[in-house]
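thought: fold this chain, then report.
action: predict
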Amino acid sequence: MSPEQSVAPEIWEKIPPEEKTRRANEGASFALKDVFIFQDHPLLPKYTLTDKNKDNYETGHYMIDFKNQYKISCKKINSANDAPIDSKCIQLSIETRNELRNKISSYYSRVPVEDIPACE
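observation:
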């Protein structure tokens, strides 16, 4: 997203011009760097989220959290080409897969905060 898209319009208006210029020079970047959220799909069930104010929202968007991963072992799924047909219900579009690849690459190629002193 662009720097302007990264905050609410009323917040963007309050940012000093020098800071807007600095952010513009950094260019577009990913929001929520440690997660990837993809569009809802009719084949995936909707679910309810509750926010900190205890308000409920129904959504069908799904999220991949790069910090919370699990390996799933299934002897029936050997590869993408050798899996039971019913194990796959949807597929991300080529564009979305490319965005996901780019975001994963960006996430894992960054220098973690705890490593910065060692890298200087």
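thought: worth noting. Residues 38-112 form one domain.
final: tokens above.
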